[in-house]
Design brief:
60 strands, Immunoglobulin-like, 7 domains, elongated, 11% helix, single chain, mainly beta
């Protein structure tokens, strides 16, 4: 068994144990439990049916050293606890929990500790029903200090109860929750409905200003074809049918819910009072089956109180699946997996932990247990390109602590209750806890390791304090100084959402905002795809002043989403960003009478806010003056529950405006604005294989997908036809298909290793963590191909980026033989996309002037989404000095994009006037416009770690210098647009002299790069050599080698070796003309003028004729007089040109990767 399989098996065993624990008591019927960890009391109180009349209550509790003696009044309240609230006092407010239904004080007495740690009682109470225990809250109250602790009473078996939500947006807001129970081995079934709704429009409140309004409400069903009512939430009048599956008629249908439970209350002033309601309706037991149905959908409809026949609002009833998150940790020689599951917002979170040494050897696992010190959730996601593991893990920030618990007030790990620790302090909350659950420790009782099952009442996966999208880290003891043992980061990962009970990541929809003037910065919005009602993570990567007018940090900036995308006034010195419109308010929320938005819209009343009003509910922003302080000052993360990226109220295509209340009056209050655009996953495929001189038998593909730079890369490997192979790796450069040996070190070079890992120090294959191998060493990280002819594997790689400057897109994959590690087959890693998603733009700067100063090309490719989003641009540089035998090599050439195209000035001998027509460096976003001569400031701020602060044309500052005469180089640039109003096409690449010289050395125009493919059949003369044929054709046509190439795999003999068939590629901006001239040259044997025009150059030595001729479809060795059509005569009888057309029978293809 492979080590990765062993880890997966261990994880699966914990999943099984988790399921067993949850299914305990199924055979005994319904089992309920309340998990408690507050105010020094930790444990659970369980409820089960003892006999027909009585319920058995059993406690398993323990106190902490800080609170050894406790006395609690205890009882049951109407509404469940909302675990998305992490403030323990706010969570247990009676206004949120409703009325008390039962008090145990009279029958059972106070809950006393010591005394009742492990006690059982019998009580005449029902498990279900209107006043039953299920779905309600257990509240413990200490009257001496006026403190409450609370917990929802839930089922142990998660499959027995379910939750659905109808969330309203306008003109009322809030949710109606439907909870239903169906115990498998008992006759218990139940349905509870609890509501909490508010008016958000003035016209809804103008009814004599009552505290609440009462409304008729019903459940409606769509027609059998939901497409007619898919936008029913926008227009409730599309709903026509009350839900009546049993045909009971008007007033008696299941959908006539108000007739059974009464009217619905809606609060008029949520800032003063709230009026939650609880209903019990046994008729709604059919609801689950209808929610799961594939066709018709259910809606809650609320009627206007003054016009009984008019719909006031409606909301779709959506089944709420359990929320699952997972973090995979793979670094520093250790590997681990932590899974989080929260069945609903009204239940605690279950945690399953499995960690150990990457090698899974016993001694290594014991060393891991000795070294591990703590586990935590951090407040920020990890920076994608932060370098070494320890530095990388530090980018997650401090422990996630939304309640602001001081470090000095925390009890030692495992000695307090979960409310006494920061939300993200997993070791503090879980160490030595939940002893009833299953655990498997390497050093039981003497280690800080977490393993097995735990529950946590302060670790929400939903709501504004969710841990999703944040980072997770493992710390180790630093024993460098034995007298001062500290903690240091060991390994880390991202907390990502996964499908419930499945190993697949949930698809995430991501939007991006890029600021370029007068500040630079990047903001991401992330939300579950097609779930516009779910939480949205807002990640501020950095915000930095960039126009040169301000080098000091500024704070207290308001920010908002506005109605329209920005116009060209984003850089105006007066009335800036006015085109972006007003604050986005699709639900037409209105402030309470006499109140401002600052009073109405807060973090605790998000439902009353305008969608675009972010600063009032999330807080103000700060902008750094320099990049060195940007992370500390401006890097933030928020989670908002009312920020849809899809659906009818989507924020995509609108503006994000940052305000400055202290700026010039002429400019206005708006500092900067930018559009909220799409940001899509990356997919890479290698499946077009080239042989390295051997018989090509490999088939299949390597497919890689990464949702964003904050996510893992998911790999699927499917190789067939393997033959005594071993390693497979990502190599530096793409495959050159016209070479006879395209996989050699002389062309694709070595493994992609941007972090300079020493391969000799790497562990054996699959025995280490991914950071211990070269980034491209896939077989080292996940296992070799030894001894197999077919290889199918799926894995997650924490270090195989498809985004950013370490991306593997545009590089190659090489499969090696086991014998001597010989290179056997290779394929370029190309973008995978569907034509209905995107299209690929290609461009080239061709340095082909024979009297120029550089010879070769720079190629560019970029993916343009159908929403006009732009991917990173992949750049391939292949340059040498002119002259067939010139082997000079120079390094450290800076390079720019300049504003204009170049012409004959590209070959001027005088350096001072060379490339002068190109103008100046391209700066379309006016970077540092206020202080353009401050070169010191510009060089200090512009760089790979702050690419938006560079001029768009300053490519070298972002990517580094290039070499001439050396190896090919591949770069990934996030700021090199090839399409749109700001495009590099038609401009020039200017290369400067070696060793960072400031003199212009060479230049070329950036033009579209086409690729036309054509099949040809050629008569094969004696001693025919494909390379010589290519050289002859290029000479006659006046072409450089990169504009005319032959696929090395395509050549095959025809007609008993009398002919040869080849696939020819015509490339470059003039590919169409080159293909036409090529056809004419082979047809008539002559070409009077070269195919590409080179200004100021005439090659008098160019040959104008070519001796090669095409081969017909018949074998020229046959002496039959029959024509192609089977009649007498000869080819001379055919119409002029038809023979040529038949000989060429070509197919034109634009080489796009189709997936």
């Amino acid at each position: 068994m492979k080590l990765s399989d062993a880890y997966e098996a261990r994880s699966r065993s914990f999943v099984l144990l988790f399921t067993v624990v949850l299914l305990v008591g199924e055979a005994r019927g319904l089992n309920l439990v309340a998990h408690i960890s507050q105010r020094g009391l930790h444990g659970e109180i369980a409820f089960s049916q003892h006999n027909d009349r009585q319920v058995l209550i059993a406690s398993e509790l323990e106190t902490t050293l800080q609170y050894p003696e406790q006395a609690w009044s205890w009882g049951v309240y109407q509404l469940p606890v909302d675990y998305t609230i992490v403030d323990p006092q706010e969570r247990c407010q009676l206004a949120r929990l409703g009325e008390q239904l039962w008090s145990f004080d009279d029958d059972l007495g106070y809950l006393m500790l010591p005394g009742n740690e492990s006690t059982t009682w019998l009580n005449d109470i029902s498990l279900t029903g209107e006043k039953g225990l299920w779905g309600k809250s257990l509240v413990l109250y200490d009257p001496t200090i006026n403190v409450r602790i609370c917990a929802t009473i839930v089922t142990r078996d998660g499959s027995q109860d379910h939750l659905a939500e109808a969330r309203f947006s306008s003109p009322i807001t809030g949710s109606i929750y439907f909870r239903w129970l169906a115990a498998k081995e008992s006759n218990h079934s139940d349905t509870l409905i609890h509501t909490n709704l508010f008016h958000i429009r003035d016209q809804s409140r103008k009814m004599g200003s009552p505290a609440y309004t009462e409304h008729v409400w019903k459940i409606y069903v769509t027609d059998i074809f939901e497409s007619e009512a898919q936008n029913a939430e926008e227009n409730c009048n599309k709903l026509q049918l009350v839900f009546d599956p049993q045909n009971r008629g008007a007033g008696n249908a299941i959908g006539d819910i108000d007739g059974r439970v009464g009217p619905l209350r809606i609060t008029t002033n949520a800032r003063q009072n709230q009026y939650p309601q609880l209903f019990h309706d046994h008729k709604l037991v059919l609801l689950p089956s209808d929610l799961y149905g594939p066709s018709r959908k259910l809606y809650v409809v609320v009627f206007d109180p003054t016009h009984p026949d008019t719909f006031l609002a409606c909301a779709k009833i959506r089944h709420q699946k359990p929320r699952t998150a997972r973090t995979l940790v793979d670094g520093g020689g250790m590997r681990g997996d932590m899974r989080f599951t929260q069945r609903s917002r009204f239940e605690p979170t279950w945690i399953q932990a499995s960690f150990g040494a990457a090698s899974n050897e016993s001694a290594a696992n014991i060393n891991y247990a000795k070294d591990v010190s703590s586990f935590r959730i951090n407040q920020l996601p990890l920076e994608a390109y932060a370098g070494p593991e320890e530095r990388y893990c530090l980018t997650g920030g401090g422990v996630f602590n939304p309640t602001g618990i001081p470090e000095k007030d925390k009890p030692p790990p495992g000695y307090g209750t979960q409310d006494q620790y920061p939300v993200g302090d997993l070791s503090g909350k879980l160490l030595n806890r939940n002893k009833k659950e299953s655990h498997s420790f390497y050093l039981p009782g003497s280690s800080a390791e977490l393993s097995g099952l735990y529950w946590d009442t302060f670790l929400p996966l939903q709501g504004p304090n969710a841990i999703t999208f944040r980072s997770f880290s493992v710390q180790r003891y630093n024993r460098t100084l034995p007298t001062n043992i500290t903690e240091a980061p060991w390994a880390c990962g991202t907390v990502a959402l996964y499908e419930f009970n499945r190993p697949y990541q949930v698809p995430i929809l991501t939007a991006q905002v890029l600021y370029r003037y007068p500040i630079v910065g990047r903001i991401l919005f992330r939300q579950v795809k097609d779930e516009h009602w779910s939480e949205t993570a807002v990640i501020f990567e950095y915000l930095i002043h960039a126009d040169g007018s301000n080098v000091n940090k500024t704070a207290d900036h308001r920010w908002a989403i506005t109605d329209e995308p920005p116009g060209k006034d984003f850089y105006d010195w007066q009335n800036r960003c006015v085109s972006a419109g007003g604050v986005y308010n699709p639900f037409k929320a209105a402030p309470l009478m006499g109140k401002g938005w600052e009073e109405i819209c807060t973090g605790s009343s998000v439902e009353l806010c305008r969608v675009g009003d972010l600063s009032n509910r999330l807080g103000a922003l700060a902008i750094a003056g320099h990049k060195r302080e940007a992370t500390e000052i401006s890097r933030k993360m928020f989670i908002d529950v009312n920020l849809p990226l899809s659906g009818p109220a989507s924020i995509l295509g609108r503006s994000l405006v940052i305000f400055d209340d202290n700026g010039p009056k002429a400019r206005g209050e708006r500092l900067a604005c930018s559009v909220i655009g799409g940001y899509h996953r990356r997919k890479v495929v290698a499946r077009d294989w080239y042989s390295n001189g051997d018989l090509l038998t490999i088939k299949g593909k390597l497919e890689l997908v990464q949702q964003s730079e904050y996510d893992l890369t998911n790999a699927e490997v499917d190789f067939k036809g393997l033959d005594q192979n071993s390693g497979y790796h990502v190599h530096v450069a793409p495959v050159e298909g016209d070479l006879e040996f395209p996989c050699e070190d002389s062309t694709v070079y070595g493994h992609w290793n941007p972090r300079n890992v020493e391969p000799k120090q790497s562990p054996p294959p699959a025995m280490g963590s991914t950071d211990q191998y070269e980034l491209g060493d896939l077989s080292g990280k996940f296992g070799t191909l030894d001894g197999v002819t077919m290889y199918e594997q799926a894995y997650n790689d924490t270090r195989l980026p498809l985004f950013g400057y370490e991306s593997i897109i545009g590089r190659s994959i090489v499969v090696h033989k086991k014998e001597k590690n010989r290179r056997w087959a290779c394929s370029t890693l190309e973008r995978g996309y569907s034509p209905n998603e995107a299209r690929e733009i290609r461009a080239i700067a061709s340095f082909h002037h024979p009297t120029g100063f550089a010879y070769g090309y720079i190629r560019f490719t970029q993916l343009i989404g159908n929403d006009n989003s732009q991917s990173d641009t992949i750049i391939e540089v292949k340059l040498r000095y002119p002259g067939k035998h010139d082997r000079n090599v120079t390094h450290n050439h800076n390079w720019h994009i300049w504003v204009n195209p170049v012409g004959v000035d590209a070959t001027v001998q005088q350096v001072e006037t060379r490339c002068v027509a190109a103008g100046y460096v391209w700066n379309p976003y006016y970077t540092q416009l206020a202080d353009p001569l401050n070169v010191k400031l510009y060089k200090q701020e512009c760089g790979p770690d702050n690419p938006l602060r560079c001029y768009v044309g300053d490519v070298g500052a972002r990517l580094g210098p290039i070499s001439i005469g050396s190896r090919r180089q591949v770069f990934t640039d996030s700021n090199f647009p090839l399409e749109g109003t700001v495009s590099a096409l038609g401009r020039s690449i200017v290369i400067f002299g070696a060793e960072f010289s400031g003199h212009r050395f060479a230049c070329a125009k950036i033009e579209p790069d086409h690729d036309i493919v054509k099949y040809i059949n050629l008569k094969k003369p004696p001693r025919f050599v494909v390379a010589q044929f290519l050289e002859d054709v290029r000479h006659v046509m006046g072409l450089p080698e990169w504009m005319l190439a032959i696929d090395s795999r395509s050549t095959k003999s025809l007609h008993n070796d009398a002919c040869i068939q080849m696939i020819v590629h015509f490339k470059g901006p003039a590919a169409h003309k080159i293909e036409q001239d090529f056809s004419r040259l082979l047809a008539v044997g002559r070409l009077d003028s070269p195919s590409i025009y080179i200004p100021g150059y005439d090659n008098s030595k160019r040959k104008r004729t070519l001796s090669y001729r095409t081969c017909g479809v018949r074998d020229p060795n046959e002496k039959s007089a029959k024509t192609l059509f089977g009649s007498s005569g000869s080819m001379r009888n055919l119409p002029a040109g038809l023979g040529v057309l038949l000989a060429f029978a070509f197919v034109r293809l634009y080489s796009q990767a189709m997936v």
